[in-house]
């Protein structure tokens, strides 16, 4: 079964399954604007506000992710009797198949994180919160509600953000109740005392949380695995999954550990990525699949959401599409939007083009050298029709979609786009790369797009091709 088929099967099986999410809900507020001057009062930037929006955060974002994948979700959390709480309730009411059962309190505010962004980048975050534990009466109310919802739940998620909702007593009570139902318990921990999560099916700390809880400093895989094994043994936890950011994920049980490298992706905003990972793990386990299956799906899901802005979610269509080994949307409009996003991050854009039929070591050497000259490399791929004009009726061997998809799977190619014209002049004019890169015995001034790129301050680089490699030679 291919990765795409695996993801599709999990999503199909997950539809309408009931998951209970309980933990620290919060409101994520984003204030966007531009900065073009410093304050005369202090050495700080002045943000000119242009827009403002809110999203469910924390446990609420976990629930929203699950609902977006097709689950039937119950969410329990604590909010204040305030404007932020009302905004959060309203936002969650708009999410299909998500039921929110809030514990509303008058003595504590709704947790709110306000992020200030300039040109898409965070410059400040302000947190409004009270992190003391719930009162006995509030905790009792929460457990009563949870007991009702657990009747037909197929998985339990404990989303602990250390904001006071999940005390050790509440956690142990919920784990005991879920164990009686024999359903998986996925716990996203914040406490440094791992013992409070004893009995969890899967514990999902990130590396920083794991290091804080264990006291280890190293990111060495073997050290992480050995330490995790000790935790599992002493605290009756079935598996421990450590998310390692750009290094992927590691799943540890009593006898084995498995490291899975991260998928190649364009990281734009990591806000809420951990919530998506927890949601996908729970969704996969709820279908009866293994924790290894869950890690495989969650690893792919993480690579999608970090390319989005804010506490983002993903839908089944884009999840499956990400697993298909073919090119993503190759329209010029889509590529222009991608380039605009890259430029907002001060990335240097490179551009090269070719047929790339039957990818060979010469192609790989060219593309690797091209990527060394830029931050983001775009490869323009001749369409099937244009290859026939250039190479003859017997070519191409591989169709344009396959060629673009293979290119995009390479670690040094950030995007591929298919073009029908005999030359990529139109694309170069539209995308205005900083580096125009060509392989072969060319004179820079003769390369298509030279005048366009250099007149805008860019450069044209000629890379000597690796000798002895060509598609024609492979065919011969």
Question: What does this protein look like?
Answer:
By secondary structure, the chain is an alpha/beta fold. The chain folds into two domains: 3-323, 3-Layer(aba) Sandwich (UDP-N-acetylmuramoyl-L-alanine:D-glutamate ligase); 332-475, 3-Layer(aba) Sandwich (Rossmann fold), CATH 3.40.50. It has 17 helices and 18 strands. Strands 5-4-1-8-9-10-11-12-13 form a nine-stranded mixed sheet, with helices on both faces. It has a five-stranded parallel sheet with strand order 16-15-14-17-18. A four-stranded mixed sheet has the order 3-2-6-7. It is globular. The model has no long low-confidence stretch (mean pLDDT 87).
Q: What percent of the residues sit in helical stretches (DSSP H or I)? A: 25-40%
How is the largest sheet built, in terms of strand order? 5-4-1-8-9-10-11-12-13
What coarse outline follows from CA principal-axis ratios?
Answer: globular
- Strand fraction equals 15-25%
Keyword list:
Rossmann fold, 2 domains, 476 residues, 18 strands, alpha/beta, 9-stranded mixed sheet, UDP-N-acetylmuramoyl-L-alanine:D-glutamate ligase, 5-stranded parallel sheet
Strand and helix layout:
Layout: H1 3-14, E1 18-23, E2 25-38, E3 45-58, H2 59-68, E4 72-80, H3 83-93, E5 98-105, E6 112-118, E7 121-128, H4 136-149, E8 155-159, H5 168-181, E9 185-188, E10 202-203, H6 207-214, H7 221-235, E11 239-243, E12 249-252, E13 257-260, H8 273-286, H9 291-305, H10 316-323, H11 332-344, E14 349-354, H12 361-371, E15 376-382, H13 384-391, H14 400-408, E16 415-419, H15 425-431, E17 435-439, H16 450-455, E18 459-463, H17 471-475
Parallel strand pairs: 1-4, 1-8, 2-6, 4-5, 8-9, 9-10, 10-11, 14-15, 14-17, 15-16, 17-18
Antiparallel strand pairs: 2-3, 6-7, 11-12, 12-13
């Amino acid at each position: 079964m291919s990765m795409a088929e695996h993801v599709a099967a999990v999503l199909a099986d997950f539809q309408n399954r009931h998951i209970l999410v309980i933990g620290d809900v919060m409101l994520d507020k984003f204030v966007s604007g531009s900065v073009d001057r410093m304050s005369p009062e202090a050495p700080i930037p002045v943000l000119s506000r242009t827009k403002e929006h809110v999203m469910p955060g924390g446990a609420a974002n976990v629930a929203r992710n699950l609902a977006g994948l097709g689950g039937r979700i119950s969410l329990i959390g604590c909010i204040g009797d305030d404007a932020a709480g009302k905004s959060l309730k309203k936002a969650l009411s708009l999410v299909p198949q998500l039921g929110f059962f809030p514990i509303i309190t008058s003595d504590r505010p709704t947790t709110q994180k306000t992020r200030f962004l300039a040109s898409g980048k965070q410059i400040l975050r302000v947190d409004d919160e009270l992190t003391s534990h719930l009162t006995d009466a509030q905790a009792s109310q929460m457990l009563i509600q949870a007991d009702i919802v657990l009747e037909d739940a197929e998985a339990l998620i404990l989303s602990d953000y250390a904001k006071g909702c999940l005390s050790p007593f509440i956690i142990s009570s919920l784990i005991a109740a879920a164990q009686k139902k024999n359903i998986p318990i996925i716990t996203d921990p914040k406490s440094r005392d791992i013992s409070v999560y004893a009995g969890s099916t899967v514990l999902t700390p990130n590396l920083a949380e794991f290091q804080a809880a264990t006291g280890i400093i190293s990111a060495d895989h073997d050290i992480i695995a050995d330490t995790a094994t000790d935790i599992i043994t002493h605290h009756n936890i079935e598996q421990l999954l450590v998310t390692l950011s750009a290094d992927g994920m590691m799943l540890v049980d009593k006898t084995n550990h498995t490291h899975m490298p991260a998928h190649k992706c364009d990281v734009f905003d990591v806000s809420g990525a951990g919530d998506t990972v927890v949601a996908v793990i729970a969704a996969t386990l709820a279908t009866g699949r293994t924790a290894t299956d869950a890690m495989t799906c969650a690893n792919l899901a993480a690579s999608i959401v970090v390319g989005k802005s804010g506490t983002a979610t993903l839908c089944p269509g884009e999840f499956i599409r990400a697993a298909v080994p073919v090119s993503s949307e190759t329209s010029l409009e889509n590529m222009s939007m991608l380039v605009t996003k890259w430029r907002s991050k001060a990335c240097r854009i490179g551009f090269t083009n070719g047929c790339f039929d039957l990818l060979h070591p010469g192609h790989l050497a060219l593309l690797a050298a091209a990527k060394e000259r830029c931050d983001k490399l775009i490869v323009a791929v001749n369409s099937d029709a244009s290859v026939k004009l250039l190479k003859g009726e017997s070519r191409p061997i591989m169709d344009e979609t396959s060629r673009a998809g293979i290119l995009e799977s390479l670690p040094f190619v950030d995007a591929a786009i298919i073009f029908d014209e005999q030359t990529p002049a139109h694309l170069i004019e539209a995308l205005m790369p900083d580096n125009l890169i060509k392989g072969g015995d060319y004179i820079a001034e003769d390369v298509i797009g030279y005048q366009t790129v250099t007149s805008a301050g860019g450069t044209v680089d000629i890379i000597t091709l690796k000798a002895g490699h060509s598609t024609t030679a492979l065919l011969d």
